[in-house]
């Protein structure tokens, strides 16, 4: 049994997905794990406890199997998680990704777009990236052996993956974002003698402090 097989068997046996594993020339063993798809979709994220659990089990297995290594690192994939195989692509079909091709296509190697399956694909190695080039929507068909690197485009959410930026938030703006009022609502408020809203960029937060 190879060390890669030992790592994959251990990680999956504990109920996690093995995202990646690599061994450096100096003997550093890096293992990246993630929650299974159903758990991740429910908002569950990898915690320190998860990493410690996998670390302890891997240390035991690697010692029993007599695989040499200098140091073991177990971590989560982060928001910009890498896509390494067909199963990863299938799991994140419909999401926005960044890909870097091994060879340039139309003068460029890097593309960002929404991942989808190629229509009538003969196998799970053929995929499509739909992107906007500024003039029209384009589709880039590729196979996995043409890709040097692929990663999810990071999204930020307090509810796990799949979040979207808050609407109408300007770069650098802090505080609570309030819904815009229609002209009719604003006029009615003035006629009622209510005070005007705070101007944009001076949103009040808890305690009345200005940001």
Q: Please, could you describe this protein's structure?
A:
The chain has 211 residues and is of the alpha+beta class. Among the domains are: 3-75, 2-Layer Sandwich (GMP Synthetase, Chain A, domain 3); 86-152, Roll (SH3 type barrels). The chain is built from five helices and eight strands, in the order αββααβαβββββα. The protein has helices at residues 3-13, 37-41, 48-64, 86-91, 183-191, and strands at 17-23, 28-34, 71-75, 96-105, 108-117, 126-132, 137-143, 147-152. Strands 7-6-5-4-8 form a five-stranded antiparallel beta sheet, with no helix packed on it. Helix 1 crosses helix 3. It is elongated and about 55 Å long.
Descriptive tags:
alpha+beta, 8 strands, disordered C terminus, five-stranded antiparallel sheet, 211 residues, SH3 type barrels, GMP Synthetase, Chain A, domain 3, 23% helix, three-stranded mixed sheet
- The H-and-E topology, N to C, reads as HEEHHEHEEEEEH
Largest beta sheet: strand ordering: 7-6-5-4-8
Instruction: Spell out the CATH superfamily of the domain at 3-75.
Output: RimP-like superfamily, N-terminal
Ends apart, CA distance between termini: 59 Å
Which stretches of 5+ consecutive residues score pLDDT under 50?
165-181, 197-211
**What's the helical proportion of residues?**
10-25%
**In terms of quaternary structure, what is this?**
single chain
The largest sheet, given as strand count, sense and whether it forms a barrel, is: 5 strands, antiparallel
**Number of H- or I-type helical stretches:** 5
In the CATH scheme, the class of the domain at 3-75 would be: Alpha Beta
CATH topology of the domain at 3-75: GMP Synthetase, Chain A, domain 3
Which CATH architecture of the domain at 3-75? Answer: 2-Layer Sandwich
What is the rounded Rg? 24 Å
């Amino acid at each position: 049994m190879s060390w890669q097989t030992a790592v994959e068997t251990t990680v999956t046996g504990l109920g996690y997905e093995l995202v990646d594993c690599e061994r450096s020339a100096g003997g550093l063993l890096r293992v990246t794990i993630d929650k299974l798809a159903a758990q991740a979709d429910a908002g569950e994220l990898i915690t320190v406890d998860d990493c410690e659990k996998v670390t302890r089990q891997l240390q035991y297995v690697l010692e029993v199997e007599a695989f040499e290594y200098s140091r073991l690192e177990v971590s989560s994939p982060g928001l910009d998680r890498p896509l390494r195989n067909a199963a990863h692509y299938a799991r994140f079909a419909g999401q926005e990704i960044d890909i870097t091709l091994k060879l340039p296509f139309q003068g460029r190697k890097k593309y960002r777009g929404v991942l989808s399956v190629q229509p009538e694909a003969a196998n799970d190695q053929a995929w499509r990236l739909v992107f906007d080039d500024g003039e029209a929507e384009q589709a880039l068909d590729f196979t996995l052996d043409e890709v040097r690197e692929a990663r999810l485009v990071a999204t930020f959410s307090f509810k796990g993956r799949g979040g979207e930026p808050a609407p109408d938030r300007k770069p650098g703006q802090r505080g609570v974002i309030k819904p815009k009022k229609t002209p009719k609502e604003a006029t009615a408020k003035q006629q009622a003698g209510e005070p005007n809203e705070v101007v944009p960029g001076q949103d009040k937060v808890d305690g009345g402090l200005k940001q």
